[in-house]
Design a protein that fits this description.
Blueprint (H helix, E strand, L loop, with lengths): L4 E8 L7 H17 L4 E3 L17 H17 L6 E10 L2 E10 L2 E7 L24 E5 L2 E5 L3 E4 L4 E6 L9 H7 L4 E6 L7 H15 L3 E6 L14 E6 L2 E5 L8 E8 H10 L1 H22 L16 E4 L24 H25 L3 E5 L4 H17 L6 E5 L7 H14 L2 E4 L3 H11 L8 H21 L2 E5 L3 H6 L12 E2 L6 H13 L4 H12 L19 H5 L2 H13 L4 H12 L5 H17 L1 H4 L28 H9 L2
Parallel strand pairs: 1-2, 2-3, 8-15, 9-10, 10-11, 16-17, 16-19, 17-18, 19-20
Antiparallel strand pairs: 1-14, 3-4, 4-5, 6-7, 8-9, 11-12, 12-13
């Protein structure tokens, strides 16, 4: 079971210009290596059998014959292999010459895809030798003893994916053939290229590939020729790139003197899931389908629907590949264990953007309500710290006095000196209004009222404290013509780690779509940009404090005894599970596969299975808390707001998910 992954390769062989025998030997070696590694589809560069830079030698019959003989040789030597190979060569066709990609499998040519757009730059004069695939009627050609379909509109269907092919300059067109191919079902696009090097061109190419794979919601495999091509006027510097929906998965080293190959797995299931979610993609595909029907109707009335070979014509031609036995599968692509937390410079940009979104959302709510104050509980933990920083930022942006931010610390039975001190110090340093209201006496009275023993530390003991704190915040907000700002985060909402009508409730939850793993980075990000050393040190100590609701008394040394991650599991795992369940709709078996790849060096399989089942169980069981959650700004692709992002019945059954968790081995 491949869980929707398709293993692909981009290969760049060493070539000799016009030496087809040498070139096919190099290609053959790479294809056999890829087959041995379980690769399903391999792509090689443009005109790789002859080399791209043959110039007027493309007019020589000897070279064309040798290219065909080389293709026959490759077909024979790979006849017993299951791998699909995409090879570039010149093909004589109806009195002209086409720059083609040949798609091969088990000794059969499945189809020939001609290049649609031919460059006519100073460096390249392809129109001198080749005809555009757009300008010739599609049909069949006898090559290597087989009648083979020739069309730029071919789609190749395998048991695991559908793919299309375009060649080099096609990608640079305003509307590339790949745009139409993907709308008609291509999950992956393969590009055979011969891209020369110029200053700044590689960065532009990377942006182009990233944008096209993102716009088309597809995998994109790019292979461009390198060492051995003529350097008479230009240099071809080896380019191998594999993208998936805008993200770079693998990249070859440039300017290498030896053949190289990059391999990875493209997640076709993820691509298809994203297309189902993306209404614009679906609408575009539907519009193209309507054009197909219209053109088909015209064809039925006397016109040949396939008379136009343009890649922009709406009707594609499906070619089925040979069904082969399933290959042994192992996942090799890198899986980021922190999908919500980018690295390097991108983390700084992400934190700035999220903080700005939170600030703007709260600012609008303050202006709309005409509130004179915002009230929030300050515990000395990560979530309330981030919410406080957002409140201060909003007041600063609105030009309001920070004294309108009212932080209330509410010591309880489990409050430790460390969190209490950090809470008070931070509020003083930020210059907000501070109120301290202990909940101990009120809770003890409540225990007496309901007949609960104070030394019985059960769910009633814990939730009574959370609800008492919320009552204080709500009533204090009424006193001061304000509203309560919630502090709970996305991870807590997913797990239901909140007391219903306790910390679960507020008038506006600024952290509602920020996962716990990112909350820590946001607080740390603010600390690093804070000029005041005391404020920075306080924030950093909060970052280092164990996550806890502090509802159970501390130990004899005053240390936290109730650590959240000991009870519900590591947040880094739960955020990982949440991302792939919520964003991509993956089933537990696939999430488990990805988690093993991402966390294999940190958690053993049993631990991952344990917390994955916990996550699935709690995610379903706690939906009722999300069904009535307060307003809050969406900051990323994942949110659990019942008003737009996640609509699930509170009594939906988790049996399917838990059963699959139990079957994981």
């Amino acid at each position: 079971m491949n869980h929707g992954f398709v293993k692909v390769a981009s290969a760049i062989p060493s070539v000799k210009v016009a030496d087809c025998q040498y070139n096919v030997e190099q290609i053959e070696s790479l294809v056999i290596q890829a087959e041995g590694r379980g690769t399903e589809i391999i792509c090689l560069p443009e005109l790789s059998l002859t080399a791209y830079s043959c110039g007027d030698l493309f007019g020589q019959q000897l070279l064309l014959d040798e290219a065909e003989m080389a293709l026959i040789h490759l077909m024979n030597t790979t006849r017993s292999l299951n791998i699909i190979s995409i090879i570039g060569l010149p093909v004589p066709y109806r009195g002209c010459l086409l720059n083609c990609a040949a798609v091969l499998q088990r000794g059969k040519i499945l189809g020939l895809v001609p290049k649609s757009y031919l460059p006519n730059y100073r460096e390249f004069y392809e129109r001198r030798w080749f005809q555009s695939g757009i300008d010739v009627a599609e049909g069949t050609v006898l090559i290597c003893g087989q009648q083979v379909r020739v069309s730029p509109r071919l789609l190749f269907s395998t048991p695991s994916c559908t793919f299309g092919v375009e060649i080099c300059e096609d990608l640079w067109a305003p509307v590339p053939p790949s745009s139409m191919l993907t709308l008609q079902g291509a999950d992956i696009i393969f590009n055979l290229s011969a891209d020369n090097d110029l200053v700044g061109k590689y960065a532009y190419l990377q942006n182009l590939l990233s944008q096209q794979s993102a716009r088309c919601i597809c995998g994109y495999v790019y292979s461009a020729c390198g060492y051995g091509e003529s350097t008479q006027d230009v240099v071809f510097g080896c380019k191998g790139l594999i993208y998936e929906n805008g993200a770079l998965l693998a990249e070859a080293k440039r300017h290498q003197f030896e053949a190289q190959m990059i391999e990875t797995e493209i997640d076709v299931e993820r691509i298809r899931a994203e297309r189902r979610r993306n209404t614009t993609f679906a609408a575009s595909a539907a519009q193209l389908g309507a054009r197909c029907k219209e053109q088909g109707a015209r064809g039925m009335s006397g016109q040949n629907v396939f008379s136009c070979s343009s890649p922009l014509a709406p009707c594609s031609i499906i070619v089925d590949t040979e069904r082969v036995p399933a290959r042994p599968f192992s996942l090799t692509r890198i899986i980021d264990p922190y999908p919500f937390v980018p690295s390097g410079k991108r983390l700084d940009e992400r934190c700035q953007e999220i903080f700005d979104i939170q600030t703007e959302g709260l600012s609008k709510r303050i202006q709309h309500t005409g509130a004179q104050t915002v009230v929030l509980g300050i515990s000395g933990g990560l979530d309330s710290t981030l919410a406080l920083l957002v409140c201060v930022s909003a007041f600063d942006k609105l030009g309001l006095n920070r004294r309108g931010v009212v932080g209330i610390t509410m010591p309880g039975f489990g409050t430790t000196d460390r969190t209490y001190t950090n809470a008070v110090n931070l509020m003083k340093l930020l210059g907000i209004t501070i109120r301290e209201i202990s909940i101990k006496e009120a809770c003890l009275q409540h225990f007496t009222d309901i007949g609960h023993e104070a030394d019985k530390h059960d769910v009633t003991y814990e939730n009574s404290q959370a609800r008492e704190r919320t009552q204080i915040l709500m009533d204090a907000a009424n006193q001061m013509n304000g509203f309560v700002v919630g502090t709970g985060d996305l991870s807590e909402l997913a797990l239901g780690w909140a007391t219903y009508n306790g910390d679960h409730m507020s008038m506006y939850g600024v952290n509602a779509s920020v996962p716990k793993t990112l909350v820590r980075h946001l607080v740390n990000w603010v600390a690093e940009r804070t000029k005041d050393d005391s404020t920075r040190q306080t924030l950093l100590d909060i970052v280092d404090t164990p996550i806890s609701p502090e509802l159970i008394p501390a130990d004899e040394q005053g240390n936290i005894t109730q650590k959240t991650e000991d009870l519900v599991g590591p947040y880094e795992l739960h955020d990982f599970f949440l991302y792939y369940l919520l964003r991509w709709g993956f089933r537990p078996a696939k999430i488990y596969l990805l988690a093993r790849q991402a966390f294999g060096q940190k958690y053993d399989d049993a631990t991952i299975r344990k917390w994955l089942k916990t996550f699935c169980r709690r995610f379903f069981a706690q939906q009722y808390k999300r069904s009535c959650m307060p307003d809050g700004p969406k900051v990323g692709s994942c949110s659990l707001s019942p008003r737009g992002d996640w609509r699930m019945p509170s009594d939906a059954s988790s049996n399917l998910w838990l059963r699959e968790c139990d079957e994981l081995g």
